[in-house]
Amino acid sequence: MLKQFYNEYLIEAGCDEAGRGCLAGPVFAAAVILPKDYKNELLNDSKKLSLKNRLILRKNILENSIDWAVATVDNVEIDDINILNASIFAMQKAVEKLNRVPQFLLIDGNRFKPFRDIPYETIIKGDGKYMSIASASILAKTFRDEYMLNLHIEYPHYGWDRNKGYPTKEHKAAIAKFGVTDYHRKSFRLNEQLKLNF
Questions:
Q1: Are 152 and 160 in contact (CB under 8 A)?
Q2: At 93, is the secondary structure helix, strand, or coil?
Q3: Rounded CA gap, 158 and 151, in Å?
Q4: Rounded distance, CA 168 to CA 108, Å?
Q5: CA separation for the pair 146, 71 (Å, rounded)
Q6: pLDDT category of residue 150 using cuts at 50, 70 and 90
């Protein structure tokens, strides 16, 4: 069972991102404020859950959270400001979209930048420790995966329905054969091209 909160007496939003290690597509981030008495034994880091359980949990989170928001930063901006800054910016955008202003932010990972003077704590592997971060990880991942499925319809050669833009052998081989699309992160291209191993 994950921890319910970090600060018992504050309105706390958990934040996480998805798509940081991808070669294509945006980075997605989510912010979630859960009720203090929220419990769900199925809840865990989204990467440790089956697609079926992620979707069950997403429905539950959307219905039972006090507030939630999802935000994106596209590949063009990722190239412009780098993926770390884009991930942080996406989380800040998600917090900004919340209707309730949180009094504290729980951030998955070890890097963040102050946002609107809201106190925060970074938690390494926080999506496996706190319910609000795990919830944010599920929203970020499921919304991003659906986005990549739609992009796959436009560009079916890259296997985005399976790899979601991550650097699999299949994806790298498609880049080598067909080149990059408007959705690829050009700043990742050279390094990945040099690592092509089939």
A1: yes
A2: helix
A3: 10
A4: 24
A5: 14
A6: very high
Q: How far is CA 30 from CA 82, 119, 195, in A?
A: 19, 18, 31
d(CA 16, CA 46): 10
| pTM to 2 decimal places | 0.93
The structure tokens 């859960």 sit at: 34
8 Å CB contact between 53 and 43: no
pLDDT tens digits along 70-127 = 999 999 999 999 999 999 999 999 999 999 999 999 999 999 999 999 999 999 999 9
Q: Give 8-43 pLDDT, tens digit per residue.
A: 999 999 999 999 999 999 999 999 999 999 999 999
Task: Answer yes or no: are the C-beta atoms of 121 and 2 closer than 8 Å.
Answer: no
Rg (CA), the chain: 17
How sure is the predictor about 195, in pLDDT bands with cuts at 50, 70 and 90? low
Ramachandran region of residue 102, left (φ > 0), alpha (ψ -120 to 50) or beta? beta
Match 């990742």 to its residue by tokens: 188
Q: Which domains does the chain have, with CATH numbers?
A: 12-151 (3.30.420.10)
Q: With contact defined as beta carbons under 8 Å apart, do 137 and 46 qualify?
A: yes
Report DSSP state, residue 101.
P
Map residue 110 onto helix, strand or coil: coil
Kind plus residue range of the DSSP H or E element containing 196: none
**Beta carbons within 10 angstroms of residue 62's beta carbon:** 13
| Enclosing H/E stretch for 92 | helix 83-97
